[in-house]
Amino acid sequence: MVYLIRHGETEWARSGRHTGRTDIPLTDTGRTQAGFLLPIFDEVAFSDILSSPLQRALETARLAGVGNRVELVPDLMEWDYGDYEGITTSQIREKVPDWSIWTHPCPNGETIDQVATRADRVIARVRAQEGNTALFSHGHLLRVLVARWLGFEPAHGKYFLLGTSTLSILAYEESTPVIKTWNGPLITAACAVPWRQGH
């Protein structure tokens, strides 16, 4: 299975500002939320734990207790929003009506196909290994990744709302890629831990 962890809350995420490559930290709330992941990494065996090198994702991994096991993977970095970095969708729409990350370009940033290429590389790596993998990453990248996991066009990521401080799980039903859990708040992370008698 593939455990997808979107990093904890940041100031920019809370205010709806596009946060691509700006390396900002978690809020105090985000740090608290990340701690709810501890039961997952105590009870589930992982063959790989991968993280975006941006501090909001890496800090989430460290607070989950796996900082010493994380491999940094640049392909897990957030979408490069270019000129739209640090501003909100409503601000962009003042100049480009009906703008959406899923249908319009980001001047001097990445295209959706470039983001999908990175997601595809991560998926190929995950599928080449056995055992569970954890990915600490970002909202738009993970939404593209789940679309590609299911074999959809990357723009189908628009249908997979994903909040900060959430745990999602991708798996297989026989040979079919599926979503097992989506957009679960980290406070409910213990629900993903396999039940054992005596617990």
Question: What structural class do helix, strand and pairing data support?
Answer: alpha/beta
Count the beta strands: 6
Query: Helix-strand pattern, N to C?
Result: EHHHEHEHHEHEE
Output the strand order for the largest sheet: 3-2-4-1-5-6
Supply the CATH superfamily name: Phosphoglycerate mutase-like
Number of domains: 1
Return the CATH topology.
Answer: Rossmann fold
Low-confidence stretches: 195-199
Q: What is the helix fraction of residues, given as a range? A: 25-40%
Question: What keywords describe this structure?
Answer:
Rossmann fold, alpha/beta, single chain, 30% helix, 6 strands, 7 helices, six-stranded mixed beta sheet, 199 residues
Can you put this structure into words, describing what you see?
This protein has 199 residues and is α/β, with parallel strands linked by helices. It has one domain: Rossmann fold, CATH 3.40.50.1240. The protein is built from seven helices and six strands, in the order βαααβαβααβαββ. The protein has a six-stranded mixed β-sheet. α2 packs across α4 and α6 crosses α7. It is globular, with a radius of gyration of 16 Å.
